Amino acid sequence: MQNRLMNICTMRRILILSLAFMAVSMVVAAKPKQINLVRDTPRECLKSAKSRLVVEGNNVTIVPNKNEKHTRITIDKQFDFTDYKSISFTLENLEDQPLRITLYITDSRKYVAKFRRTVPATVGDAYYLAPHERREVVLNFPEPLQHPDVAKAFRLMRCTPYSREFGFYSYEGNMSDVRIISLHSQHMAQNAVKAKNGWRIVDMKVLPGKRVKNPKVVQMSYNEFFPFIDCYGQYKYKEWPGKIHSDEDLQKARKVEEADLAKYAGPADRNKYGGWASGPRQEATGRFYFKKVDGKWWFVDPEGCLWWSHGVVRVTPSSAVTPLDGRRNYFENLPKKGDEFEQFYFTHDSLLKPYYTARHIKETYDFSSANCYRKYGKDYKQVYGELAHRRLQSWGLNTIANSSDKDICLMSKTPYIERLEARGVPIKGIGGWWPFRDPFDPSFRQSIIDQLKDREQSLKDPYLVGLFVDNELRWGNESYLAVMIAKNPATLMGKQELVKHYKAKYREDIVALNKAWGTSFASWDALLNNTKDLPRRAHKELVEFNDKVIDKYFRVCREVFNEYAPGVLYLGCRFAGSNKRALVIGAKYCDALSHNLYRYTIDDYVQPEGIDKPMIVGEFHFGTRDRGMFHHSLIEVKNHEERGKAYEVYVRSALMHPNIVGTHWHQFSDQATTGRFDGENFNVGFTDVCDTPYYETIEGIRRVGYDMYNIRYTK
Asked: Domain 35-224 belongs to what topology?
């Protein structure tokens, strides 16, 4: 009996030990292992729309085809990253040009079958690589948010305080159900279509482990976090060099700048227009004009000096106007009714004001003007304007570029360029910053006439260099405008002109048109009243009318300038993407072409064959997040020291180009920390929201600006 009991106890012990061993084994087995994303992913789950993928072990090379500017690789496979802490890999740029590579990790709620670059990511970030640079990347996965109600309260900002901590973290991501991992590249040079070698991902792996705790600011509750913007418009929860904590700090910053301006009075070889006083003289006409000298295009200033436009956009104290609608809790100590700072609920930038109105934004606050008021007193506008001219001269700049304060321009101390925007009847369906107006409608011509008449004082001012008309219109492909007009209502005059054009071409034979277009219109009135998409065959036919639309647009502008602004340069429409036909036609009528070119360098810029015109860079910039801003800019650099260097490289590349006659930085001062009408909250200023210069950037401007005429004239 005793032996039997002992055997039973022994068997129980063995069973308990076995169960314990099995439990331990299961735990060990359940411990997550490192995932090698390229090596361990089935080949059919590695996808690219057009590029060729070369897979070697845990490495993959993305080789673009000859016409591909943007490439991507997508890992289309479901993962559970609950017990993983980070993703790690090395990026290698195999090209002779810089690349921007963006990583997106996307959960099931954000998943779409056809991946788009704009898809929100659960987590991700962007990386900028110089030619042939190798860069190690470790992206930590965030913990779940302790207070998701804080994240959900952010609105109308391109990037938020949480973006500052997490990159492209979307706050709602489900890391247990990842469906897409994608890396998207963008070539940052004009000749990207000639890219051959592509880029490489080396040893891409997801690492198991405990995640790093979220930053303290992300752990704050709603009541602890809000408000997060101080009375100066700055982020409360970070410190950085030059941050303002009191009105006394503003005065200290003012004294520091006065010493800097006294030390650097400006280049010595300039006349009153910033022209090259010691350079070869040309004919003096009293106005600016263009001339080609020794194979390079130049402006010639009113005194006959060679002149190159080194400028900056939006010189105005109202750079940091931000919407308050539904966001008053963001801001600390907003002024009450009757307070002397109440006036800054009503100050605004006149050129951008219509964009706020169009978006039905009812209440704003102008932090930058309020800080100038604190810094310079009740006559801050006059003081700021005078200081702006001194700054530009000291920094080696000579142009107040478009969208700037009219009163500052009309001080007639620095040459300036203005911009007007055509009004009239919009062509429905064409997106972009501003509607594309029907150039066949008389209201188009009249709107330009009216705006030129409103600028009577400027048109007589020798400091006026010229005028842009419009900004970043959407030109589309070689038939786009005509395709959109073809499905507009019959009341559109451009639509009537389209029908008239093809009625003449096909000798009023609608059957012949139907045969060519692949349509079945019963009559010409049926075409006129059509509002549906046309067949693809018709698009090729519409190229010729598209040319007619473009020609009409530029020709009307040219005719109005000739009649109402003789001698004033017509500087184009500030292209931000276009097609060759639009450039060729525009070049017939514009005194110069203008492009907004956001990239690291433009030494590879090439005009289409057959065009030899002066060209102005209407916008470029670089930004960073090391001084309190949530969003760097369209083109990121590591810090403000690198920002100054990047500025010098860009402008030098423009000075060496025979067609480029100027570069205009966007913009003079930072945007609002909490965003403007469209949420842009970029670190793009030469000065911050408190009107303090970024001296590292200023050093770069001076390095190239003081020597720019010698650089330009070098053979």
From this structure: Jelly Rolls (2.60.120)
